[in-house]
Each structure stands twice: as C-alpha cells, then as structure tokens.
Design goal:
Length: 254
Amino acid sequence: MATALITGATSGIGREIAWQLAAERMNLILVARSADRLEEVAEHIRQVADVEVEVLPADLSQAEGTLRVCERLIDDERPVGLLVNNAGFGLGQDFVGGDIERELNALNVMVRAVLMTCHAAIPGMVARGGGGILNIASMAALTAQGTYSAHKAWVRTFTEGLAASLKGTGVNATVVCPGLVHTEFHEKVDVDPGQWPESAFIERVAAEAIEGVRRGKVVVTPSRRYRALAGALKVAPRSLVRAVAGPERSGRRG
C-alpha cells in the first residue's frame, strides 16, 4: 500500500487531503507541530479508515524540524510515494515595521521546508520510477499582498520548474492554488472571514488537488470562478493588481 507524507496535516486543507487519501487506502505520515493534536487526528483516521497512520511532530520553522521530516523521506525501507507540502504560516503583520523573526519563520515554513523536503523525496521516487509531489500555494501568488504572496509565488514557480525537470521520470509535481477556503487560518492571523461573501469561499480543494496529481497536472486552480480570476490577474497591469490586491487588502482587523 502506498504512503503519503502530509505537512500541516491537523487542520484545513491538509487534514482534508489526509482523509481523502485514507479513503483511497493510502497509509499516511502526518506532520505538524502539536504531537497531541497529531495523535488525535491520526487515531480518528485509523479508527474510521483502517489504514496505517504515522505521526511525526516537527516544527518546520526550525531547521531541526525540517531535517527530521527529510530523514523520514529518504528512508528507502519505508518509501513515501506522495509528498504533500501543505504547512502554512500566517504572518498577521505588515513587513514594514513587522517582526523579522516572524518573517524568517514564515520563510522557513513556506519556502525552505518545501525546497528541502522535495530535494529529499525526489531521488527515491525517481529511482523507483514513480511518485508525486503536491505543493499547496494560493491565489495570493498572483497578487501583491506582501511576503505571503511572495512565498506562494515562489512555491508556484518552483513547482512548475520541478515538473519540467521531472518530465519522463514517472514522478509528477503539482501545485494547487486555492482561493478562499473556510479553515482556521483566518482566525490565526486576526482576519475576519465575514468581510467576504459566502460565494467567495470554495470547497473540494483537496479532491481537485488529488485529482490533479492523479492526472499529472502541473497547476491546479480549484473552481471556475477562481480560474477566471487567475486569468484576469495574469493579464492585468501590475499597477492595477497592486491597487486592488496589495498589502492593504489583506483583510486583517485593525
């Protein structure tokens, strides 16, 4: 039975991906900071889906946490067939005047950890002739909302380049760019989700992401309305994008 490793697996999109993969009879390795919450989610999945679920507590904002995950990925005796880089970091601050340590922690989680885990996982996948990388970016990658947008733009571009490099190896690289989703993310960064109409929120992100991996798609943008918005953002003058989707449009309270 194949095994998937999922970072940021105890909430939001990561947890939903874990449940969907478990329903497809994949064994799981769940990664997050909280050991207690990891074990709670893992035990629930074990009871319902009857698959093996390994927990790997790791803080990806710290080098030792990311290295722990990389060590698991290079274990050829327990191969990982799908790597899902979902862990996110809500900064909850402006770059100008913000705390630099928080900025560096966000960079570590959303850029360095993605780079390192992909670098660790891919050689084994290529040697085995198959596997998948699923990196979670965001529609913010096409906007100008500060460093969060920059990190997610890096994830998108990195994954596209990775997909090209892996062509013909049997290993696929997919990046999913969701729009607004009901998760705990907004609360953690003091953003009121009620400021957006309910129609702006989408579901089935996990399902579309997994289907994208299965079909070998490189970029997945869930929902027709966000695909239309992505098309508009790509052709719009960047001055307009900065005006309508710049840092001041982050939606944080205060």
